[in-house]
Amino acid sequence: MLCPPQPLRTVTFDAALRSPNQPSRAWTVAVLAGLWAGLSGAQTAGHAQLQEGARQWVAEQTQTPLDALQATPLDPRLNIPACGKKIQFDLPFGNRQSVRARCDQPAWQHFVQVMTRPDAVPTPPASAVTTQVPTAAKTQPGHVMRQVLVANQALKRGAVASAQQFSLVEMALPSGETSYLSDASALNHMELQRDLPAQTALRSYDLKAAQMVRRGQQVMVSVGEGKGFLITLRAEAQQDGILGEQIRLKNTESGRSLTAVVTGFNAAKAI
Length: 271
Known about the structure:
Elements: H1 25-62, E1 69-71, E2 88-90, E3 99-104, E4 107-112, E5 114-116, E6 143-151, E7 166-174, E8 190-192, E9 207-209, E10 211-213, E11 218-223, E12 231-237, E13 241-242, E14 246-251, E15 257-264, E16 267-270
Parallel strand pairs: 11-16
Antiparallel strand pairs: 1-5, 2-3, 3-4, 6-7, 8-9, 10-13, 11-12, 12-14, 14-15, 15-16
């Protein structure tokens, strides 16, 4: 006896049903993305905390308006965790182009450059520079007579600054103006970051820290200083560096990487 054909049954497989020990690929990607976002956010917060804190500290120390100051962006590859305590700032080299920032929790130390914005203060015309002291009656209201450094000759961008290139000249300046330089010691280890015409008064933002070490150059590195021994070795700079800045180097003989603080032209001390 023939049996009537049975209707076909449709079976649906739910792709969402997986073994509890095998999470979906989308879930794994989402978790990794969240972790990466958290790390990036922490690093960004540390950079912003360091730069803004340095600007505020320099503004308080120099009585300069905060809006007139700018901090040089840090290397984005630096991992700077947000500081759990108040960051301590100081000027170990006597100029605000190299502000040292130290954190106790977690422990780290970095250097940041803080300069006056080029558009913050107008440059007086060269005709305003004079070697003679005007009488008090000719001084404009709101101005004071101050001695400032004036270029003896035209100077090119990138030139290493020296006291022989400038002379002290007395001129009338706005009473609240603080960016003009009068102390020749501020020229130490500095270079010009723009062309400076002859007879132009020098301002703090005309200078930047001179590059003591350049990427690819051979650097003499001292190891063990202050620990009872001293070894000097040659290493290749992996990045540019100014005085007091931490840089990465590579020992060309062993291939090992090391970190050192720039102490002079093509010289550094291992840390």
